[in-house]
Specification:
About 35% of the residues lie in helices and about 35% in strands. By secondary structure, it is of the alpha+beta class. The protein has a single domain, classed as 2-Layer Sandwich (Alpha-Beta Plaits), CATH 3.30.70. A hairpin with a 2-residue loop joins strand 2 and strand 3.
Length: about 110
Amino acid sequence: MIANTPAPPYFAVIFSSLRTEGDHGYGEAASRMLALAHEQPGFLGVESAREDGLGITVSYWESEAAILAWKQQAEHRAVREKGRALWYSAFQTRVCKVERAYTFHT
């Protein structure tokens, strides 16, 4: 699903990851984090795809302050630690300011 974001500017957090073998509770944790993100002030939406172990998730936020609050959220922080220990062999997080956005749909 393509996230329905407002007119720019807003912010995007791009999380690219390589998974380890096995689920080890990943699916349940990912579902919980998505639900929790939706409850956070300033959350605008998310888009995610995974193929052959590579995952890319882009979450959209109203402000850098909202991103920082999400990063500091206790349950999210605990799941990130579990990700380092169990679920990911590598990941990279990028924070971007969206200056322009274009839409097409039929």
